[in-house]
Amino acid sequence: MSSKRILAFALALVPMVTLAQSATWGGSSYFTGMATTFATVVNTLIPAFMGLGFIAFFWFLFKYLTGDAAEKEENRKSLLWSVIAIVIMISIFGLASLLQGIFGAQGGSSTIDAPIIN
Question: I need a labelling partner for 110 at 20 to 30 A (CA). Which of 1, 13, 33, 70 fits?
């Protein structure tokens, strides 16, 4: 990328940077709105990744139970890694809930809600 393009891009961002404190996002400050949006996306992705972990576990379990002897060792390793991934995800979730309780943070509930489809 040429230096002229970088300079033009930087100059195009100047109004956004200089007006950052007065900008609003949904009735609140720009930063608060962006942080809320980011938290909403992350809180949506966490159960999705947990669900993918459980789907992978059951898929590898099915492949392990129905596979031939040559594939069983590879499927057993994949099954072990999916269990490790699930344990790590649940441990991180539990640690976050524990730290919220210790420090009195007003986070979400300490229970895992089942995902629903509207």
Answer: 33
